[in-house]
Amino acid sequence: MSELHESFWTTLAIAPPLVATLFLGLWGLRLRNKGWAEAFIHQLVSWSFGLSFIACVVLGVELWLSGRARLFTDFEPWFKVGHYEFHLSLVADRLSVPMAAFSSALLFVVGAFSRKYLHRERGFLRFFFLLALFGSGVLQMLFAGSLDFAFFGWELVGLSSALLIGFFHERPGPVRHALRAFVIYRICDIGLLSAAVLLHHQLGHTMADNHVSGVSWGSWAVPESESARLLIGFCILWASMGKAAQFPLGGWLPRAMEGPTPSSAIFYGAISVHLGPYLLLRAAPLISETPVLAWGVIAVGGFSALYSTLVGRVQTDIKSALAYSVMTQVGIIYVEIGLGFYHLALLHVVGHATLRCLQILRSPSILSDKFALERARGEKLPQLFVRFEKALPLGLQRKLYRFAIERAYLDAFGRVLLLKGLALLRALDSLERQWVNLLLGSRKRADPTHLNTPPESKL
Q: How many domains, the chain?
């Protein structure tokens, strides 16, 4: 396959959802109040993911037949500032192609499911526009050949996620939860941006490295300095924790279920929440060459799995229970990555994403099915899990129950921290206003000419 064909198929893998997003953004308002609009919007978005899936399959076959580790596409620099050049570079390798094919296939399925689920919904067009925006951001992030370009797709995913959490904006709850998720995203995105800046200072670029030992895919370039590797690695870990809802930043995930069920399934059960592990898999050599960072990844995953297991067992609604189950499994994936089981972690991501997507899509009807089965049997269904807490003393059981029902007191601590932070910001704002008024007052006293100015001239 020639370089031109390689560039064509790689570009085709990310282009269709972006074209669908631009079309709906520019011409979507003209489709309102038309009987055929829903079918057209659904087919446009769903088949854009279908085309991406076909392109990913072709790229995967090419990688398998040629025996090459990756197919790299580097376009002309988008802009230059001094010695810095921003390249639109794409990489198709044994990490990005399977993840992109899997993601585009799931997006196609969820798009087909969403047509009936959101039929005659007032925000039908808005949902599919945000779904296409999310899909284009995911594919750009997966195929990004540099950390700069990955950050662009990372931000599109975060923006569309927050907007879909607040999809039912008529109620204050979804809007409040969307704002919470967006704030956590923005705080953690500082890590990814800092990692890109540090890589530029160390190496002059953030392009994916050609030769990486220990894994069968490319990675971001690894600095020679151990301190630089440690700092950049922890910045990437911090960024991944926000998307993956890891401890102590996972409080937004059960609240994100306020959005439509299809978006909850594809975002927080399948794709978006697994972009954190994907980022760590892309930085696998950085983790393997920095033992302290590897232990940090293990600690984050282990604490997250333990915390979400305890809290998830006391949830009273099915979506919250599934959200904490997602956090548990993603925490285990973090542990696998920290231990160096990168291929196992990739298989775990695909299997877990498929299962959770199905469970969340089924969650609105699974309770009615359960009650119908219980009526048919004439008795309640037996519990399938073992209650290990029965082996503990009663006093400890009560303490653990309160610990779990309070979500490890993270919400209360965050509320106090937020109130104190807002009070500090208000105090600083008040001091700034007083300082500005003092400077303006001294300026007026130093310039007495304004006292003799007629009122007409002041106007």
A: 2
